[in-house]
Write a structure and sequence with these properties.
Strand order of the largest sheet: 6-2-1-7-8
Number of strands: 10
Number of helices: 11
Order of helices and strands: HHHHHEHEHEHHEEHEEHEEE
Largest sheet: 5 strands, parallel
Radius of gyration: 20 Å
Strand content: 15-25%
Length: 281
Amino acid sequence: MSRPPPLKGDELPAWGEYIAKACGVRLDSNKGYLIESRLGPLMRETGAESWAALLRKVKTDPTRQLHTKVISAITTNETSFFRDQAPFQLLRHKLLPELIDRRTQERAKPIPIRILSAACSTGQEIYTTAIVLKELLGDFNGYDIRILGLDVSQEAIAQASYAHYSQLELSRGISPQQLTRHFELVGNQWKVRDELRATATFRQANLLEPISTPGLFDIIFCRNVAIYFNEPDKVRLFKNLGRLLARQGALIIGSTESITNLCPEWEPQRYLRTLYYTKKT
């Protein structure tokens, strides 16, 4: 089978219901092409003759490997190093200096810095954040830096944890100077240097479910995630994240997103051209 058949009848609603329950992504009647394009390889792999047959295989697979592959395929989102520079300028020039100043006044030693990347995908946002920290601080001595990445896709988490990237992936956002400073060549791939890799941990999590973490976070990234959710799920998402944000912490979402009217407990703040959110006290 060179090309998967089109979805028929009630196949799209059935798949839509399954995917929504699995990861919160809502696929309307115009998104059949997304299933056909992203799950077509899985149909060929399993030998399923129809989309209904593939769904039955996924639901009855005792190993749950097919379920994992479906979630990984559907939630694969565009990502790159330093994607959209504005949030990282906000991080470098405002959020981190103010956080460090507060912790210095509190005489916290070593200075704790806690950052969460929600829907971290294959790790580019995490390691971009670590690079910003390294370039800002110079030396991590005197700091207790912990960056946690969460994603619903186990395959994405595994790749992020592996911390190896191709030349093509690094060419999108990483300068030649940053490449030699923060990565080392291993075979035909580039590995994140150990000092940066040591700041990061990764966990599989569904952001629409209650999330348990070891403490609260000073900065939470959740960029271009809620655009795949309906309004009730968006509210659930940002309530969950609100429970994880420390006092005076900051939430950074996508540049085209807004939660001002949707979640009144969040207060918008502006730095230059960048909008971020804090919890109302």
